[in-house]
């Protein structure tokens, strides 16, 4: 058994034919992850006991002739902003270095109930704030495809463990592109479902109106399987939607003849020629498969980054107020008074990017500035969402690049926050509109770096998105 | 300049961050760069556009409240397990009111 290449279907067949047990998969995946992790730093910790316990349950179900679940025996990585009961969950931050959550996130509960094996907690940018995974307090992650380059962020570890083969699938979180961009940088599939499709219960809050949990996988079918397991209404998240979950695996097997696919003309800002050429080849392939390609305009695209960095920082400044030195393990040893407890704990515990965002968010919400910044941004968000609503009156889906450029070198953009923010230009719009978006591999640049193509559809039309992704993958020629 | 050192110190105070002198200098530059970029939004006339508070608001009643039934919540011990300092079932903090 070669864990690095297994698909969920391989595992299902192998377990059923008794070629291996879930415990054998868990042991081999843990051994492989332990051996490979030093190359990338994708995992912050491995979860031996938890994975082996889950595997024993799967084997017992199989022995009893029971249906072991759609993720039976599947090694899964979980981003360290998603809480796991009894397993340290740091969010990539010093301030939560010793935090041991007293409960499981709903997505974690569901994937384990489906037979999934949590192999480890994946590294990420601190509190999911970043586009390169260089903001982790526990060291950057290296891109398995090109080790001197970043894996993308903020879910860099979740992307790297799947690309490296130390997990079959993983959970990431996406606020402005944190699943799609690392998926594109590492050459795998990454899905940001509709806002509300997957419960946020147990996802440590960064920007609540924008936060999503979603899957990473090495192929479309595996991503669809994981999404089907974690999606659906959860009474513990009032924003989780009561909309039936589709059969995304079946959708991914349909053909795409006659679908109308829009190509937004604004998605060329800063686009590097190699990336642009690959996307053009991808679009040509969709046309060959029978899609009608339609030119579309999303006129407010250029305002998305400014809008996003007001809204996400405002929400972050409120959400991160809870790290006060009283409740979450860390308290500065140098405090005499209550005010010092707050200030010194936060100053010692947060990294530079988190402080920058808390400061910006506090500033835009402060007296006299609220209307000019926060309210203005919320109005612009409405305009951006309307752009998409109008586009979807004409087309079934949109196709764009995921990022203007492929994986950049470690350290290349770390000193210029605005440049780093601009790298999210193509992913932020879909996040602001709350629509489903995913990244699928779209070949490589001349330098051999993966390129990702983004597919976007209407609210709750994940099936339509998977339909295009599946047909595109089957057509071949774009795997990384 | 969109922002001054004095303003940065005031905002840090609101955010309960004790920035060092060096951090303040860096923050003035970074926030100034970002706020200058954000000014782009002023090119747009948004009079009469509703601000969006919830992305699925127009899709109601998709997001909804759960039924008001009793459930299990965290025990006091579990809730306090991560406290740096606790006692008598409470989080303990330095004295709030000085005499």
Description:
- The complex is a heterodimer of chains A (480) and B (99).
- In chain A, α2 (22-40) packs across α5 (156-164).
- Chain A is globular, with a radius of gyration of 21 Å.
- Chain A has 3 domains: 3-246, Amidase signature (AS) enzymes; 260-298 and 380-475, no CATH class; 306-372, no CATH class.
- Chain A has an 11-stranded mixed sheet with strand order 1-3-2-4-6-5-10-11-9-7-8, sandwiched between helices.
- Chain A is built from 16 helices and 11 strands.
- With 480 residues, chain A is α/β, with parallel strands linked by helices.
- With 99 residues, chain B is mostly helical.
- Chain B has a domain at 1-44: Histone, subunit A, CATH 1.10.20.60.
- Chain B is flat.
- Chain B starts with a helix and ends in an 8-residue tail after the last strand.
- The model of chain B has no long low-confidence stretch (mean pLDDT 89).
Q: Architecture of the domain at 1-44 in chain B in CATH?
A: Orthogonal Bundle
Total number of helical segments of chain B? 3
Helix content of chain A: 40-55%
What portion of the residues of chain B fall into strands of 2 or more residues?
under 5%
**Mind telling me the CATH class of the largest domain in chain A?**
Alpha Beta
Helix/strand/pairing class of chain B, anyone? mainly alpha
Largest interface: A-B, 74 and 59 residues
Low-confidence stretches of chain A: none
Proportion in helices of chain B = 25-40%
Count the beta strands of chain A. 11
């Amino acid at each position: 058994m070669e864990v690095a290449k297994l698909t969920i279907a391989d595992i299902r067949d192998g377990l059923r034919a008794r070629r291996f047990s879930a415990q054998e998969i868990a042991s081999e995946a843990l051994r492989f992850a332990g051996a490979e992790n030093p190359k990338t730093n994708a995992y912050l910790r491995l979860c031996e006991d938890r994975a082996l316990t889950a595997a024993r349950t799967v084997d017992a179900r199989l022995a009893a002739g029971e249906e072991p679940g759609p993720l039976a025996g599947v090694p899964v990585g979980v981003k360290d902003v998603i809480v796991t009961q009894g397993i340290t969950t740091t969010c990539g931050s010093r301030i939560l270095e010793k935090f041991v959550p007293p409960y499981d996130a709903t997505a974690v509960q569901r994937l384990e109930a489906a037979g999934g094996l949590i192999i480890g907690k994946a590294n990420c940018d601190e509190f999911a704030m970043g586009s390169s995974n260089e903001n982790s307090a526990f060291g950057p992650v290296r891109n398995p495809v090109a080790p001197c380059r970043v894996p993308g962020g903020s879910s860099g570890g979740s992307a790297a463990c799947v690309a490296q083969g130390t997990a079959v699938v993983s959970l990431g979180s996406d606020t402005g592109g944190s699943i799609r961009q690392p998926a594109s940088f590492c050459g795998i599939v990454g899905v940001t479902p509709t806002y509300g499709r997957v419960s946020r219960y147990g996802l440590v809050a960064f920007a609540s109106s924008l936060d999503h949990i979603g899957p990473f996988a090495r192929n479309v079918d595996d991503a669809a399987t994981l999404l089907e397991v974690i999606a659906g209404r959860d009474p513990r998240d009032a924003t989780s939607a009561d909309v039936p979950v589709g059969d995304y695996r079946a959708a991914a097997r349909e053909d795409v003849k006659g679908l109308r696919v829009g190509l937004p003309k604004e998605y060329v800002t800063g686009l590097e020629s190699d990336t642009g050429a690959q996307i053009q080849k991808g679009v040509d392939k969709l046309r060959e498969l029978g899609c009608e390609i339609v030119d579309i305009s999303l006129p407010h695209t250029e305002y998305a980054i400014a809008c996003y960095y007001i809204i996400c920082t405002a929400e972050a400044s409120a959400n991160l107020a809870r790290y006060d030195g009283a409740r979450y393990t860390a308290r500065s040893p140098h405090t005499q008074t209550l005010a010092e407890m707050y200030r010194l704990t936060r100053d010692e515990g947060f990294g530079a990017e988190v402080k920058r965002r808390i400061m910006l968010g506090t500033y835009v919400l402060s007296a006299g500035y609220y209307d000019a910044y926060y309210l203005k941004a919320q109005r612009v968000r409405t305009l951006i969402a309307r752009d998409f609503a109008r586009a979807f009156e004409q087309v079934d889906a949109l196709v764009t690049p995921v990022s203007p450029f492929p994986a950049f070198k470690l350290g290349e953009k770390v000193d210029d926050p605005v440049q780093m923010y601009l790298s999210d230009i193509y992913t932020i719009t879909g996040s602001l509109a709350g629509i489903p978006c995913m990244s699928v591999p779209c070949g490589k640049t001349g330098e051999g770096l993966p390129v990702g193509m983004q597919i976007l559809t209407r609210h709750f039309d994940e099936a339509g998105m998977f339909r295009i992704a599946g047909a595109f993958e089957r057509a071949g020629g774009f795997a990384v | 300049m969109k922002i001054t050192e004095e303003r940065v110190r005031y905002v840090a105070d609101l955010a309960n961050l004790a920035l060092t002198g060096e951090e303040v200098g860096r923050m003035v530059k970074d926030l100034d760069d970002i706020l200058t970029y954000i000014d782009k939004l002023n090119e747009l006339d948004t009079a009469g556009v509703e601000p969006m508070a919830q992305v699925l608001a127009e899709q109601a009643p998709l997001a909804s409240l759960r039924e008001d039934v009793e459930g299990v919540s965290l025990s006091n011990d579990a809730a306090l397990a991560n406290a740096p300092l606790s006692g008598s079932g409470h989080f303990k903090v330095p004295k709030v009111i000085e005499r």
